Every structure is written in structure tokens, then in C-alpha cells.
Amino acid sequence: RAKECGKNTFQFYAGDMNAHALERLSLESALRRGLAQNELELWYQPKVDLASGELCGAEALIRWRHPQRGLVPPDEFIPIAEDSSLIIAIGEWVLHTACRQLRRWRDADLRAGRIAVNVSGRQFKYGGIVETVRQTLQTHGLPSECLELEVTESVAMDEGEAMTGVLRQLQQLGVYLSIDDFGTGYSSLSYLKRLPVHGLKIDRSFIMDLHKDSDDVAITRAIISIAHSLGLDLVAEGVERPEQRDFLVAHGCQSGQGYFYSRPMPAEAFEQLLRHRRLALS
Ligand code: C2E
Ligand code: MG
Ligand code: MG
Ligand code: MG
């Protein structure tokens, strides 16, 4: 488009690029400030045993309570943090906050199950993730099996041998490892077989139309069958309807999370849920 409209348009275009870069830069410094001033929050979404409806844990999901913008979802700031070293500091904050919270719940005799946190590729590459996890668990006196790390399929598959090494160390440490958004990357099955992980999370995009799209039915069945053959646990993301749950139960997917059970909620609300151990199901 710049070409067909001539020179001036190119100037405009370059100007837009700068504006975009500037916007990112100012968001990054606002985020740095936000981290320092305690504007970040962890929300929790229940993970449920699909057949019984019982709560088995939660995924911790970050939010940014921006003084002007209000509650900012992770998709609007995590990618920016991932482009800089900021994701390392945020990742450490997430681990620390989730573990401190879990410690409190355990001290209050509330059975929260396993808490999952999302980990970015950069944390694996440069963040000294193994040492950070070991120290954080130790600081809060938590057994390693109550912590789950979710890493996306593309990250788990991309980094080759170095990544496998880090995952193996984490496995030796005893934390639970799962591959997030499974089915959206390009896993080679032989590589998946060698990866030291415990479970797969079926991406929400396949679950969304499960009740009406035969391709999604085929893909979901294939993923379930792969997990079964490789001895991996399964969690379905984005369960919103009873038909989806029924399908998943019938085909042998043990656990799930989604709006059908609950949206992510602040720590205090999740704590109420733990006290009453009841999910409001339709
Ligand atoms: P994710 O790890 O795949 O998390 C699942 C996302 O799906 C969450 O969005 C959750 O709120 C949403 N979700 C759950 N159930 C349903 C449902 O039934 N329907 C629909 N439409 N959505 C559902 P959220 O919280 O906006 O997080 C988006 C992504 O941001 C996460 O995807 C994850 O990749 C990233 N993220 C969140 N927290 C963190 C964090 O602490 N660290 C890092 N590195 N990334 C994070
Ligand atoms: Mg996740
Ligand atoms: Mg996911
Ligand atoms: Mg996702």
C-alpha cells in the first residue's frame, strides 16, 4: 500500500511504526512500575475432575490492575513482558505469589490441590527456572508435587535438547509439568514421547465447537488417544457446556476447566469456594 500511494505514505507508515514502538515502550515502563507498586494480581480458575465434578486444583492467571485502564488481561501485557527481561521478574513474582497463597490455604486446612502457574519460554532460557522453583518451594515449605508448571507446546518443542534438560531437572525436583495449548503447535510424536512431562492440556479452540464440529471431535479424540498411549494425564481447556463435558467424560478425558464450572476469580473468592467445596453447576 505504501508503494502504490507514493513517498508520503511511506513517511506515514514509518511514523505509525514509531508510535507503535513508543506505545509498547511506555506500556513496558508502566508495567515495570506496576510490578513494583503491587498492581499485579493472581486470579484462580478451578480445575475439576470431569466425571465427579470434584475440584482438583487451580490455574493461577495473572491480571494487572492498572490505575487508569482498570483490570488488564494477560494477553495485553504478557507479550510485552516477554519481549524484555521483565518476564523474568514477573515470572518470579507469579511463582512466589502462588506458593505464598497455597501455603496460607494449607495452613488454614483448605485443600486447594495442585496450583498451576504459566511459565514463558524466556524464563526457561534465561531465568534460572530450576533454582527459582526450588528456592520458592523451600521458602514456603511446600512439597514439590503441589506445584504445576504449564509451558506451551511451541516452547516445549522449540528449544530442543536444552529445553529437555531443564524439564528433566524440574521433573527430578518433583514438580508436575504439563504442556499448555496442546494441538496448536507442531509436536512430533516421537519428541513428545521423550519429553519429561506429566500431562497435556487440550487447547480451548478444539473444545469450543466440540458439540457441533466433526473435525474438532476427530482431533480431540486423537489427542485423548495419544495421551492414553503415552501415559499422559489430560486436562481440557474451555469447557463451557454440559455436552462438551459429557463428550470428554465418555472419551476418557479426566479433567477440565472452563466457564461451565467457573471463571477465574480473585484469591478471596477461590478461598470461599475451598471453604464450601461446592461449584455452582447448572
Ligand atoms: P492459558 O494458560 O491457556 O489460560 C487459559 C485462558 O483461557 C485464560 O485466559 C482463561 O481465563 C481462559 N478460559 C478458561 N476457561 C475458559 C472458557 O470456558 N471459555 C473461554 N472463552 N476462555 C476460558 P487469560 O486469563 O486471559 O489468560 C490468557 C493467557 O495469558 C494464558 O493462556 C497464558 O498463556 C497467559 N498467562 C496468564 N497468566 C500468566 C502468567 O502468570 N504468566 C505467563 N507467562 N503467562 C500467563
Ligand atoms: Mg495455562
Ligand atoms: Mg492454555
Ligand atoms: Mg491459551
From TrEMBL:
Keyword Cell wall biogenesis/degradation: no
Domain EAL, first and last residues per copy: 24-278
Organism: Paludibacterium purpuratum
Residue ranges of coiled coil: none
Entry keywords, A to Z: CBS domain
Protein name: Diguanylate cyclase/phosphodiesterase with PAS/PAC sensor(S)
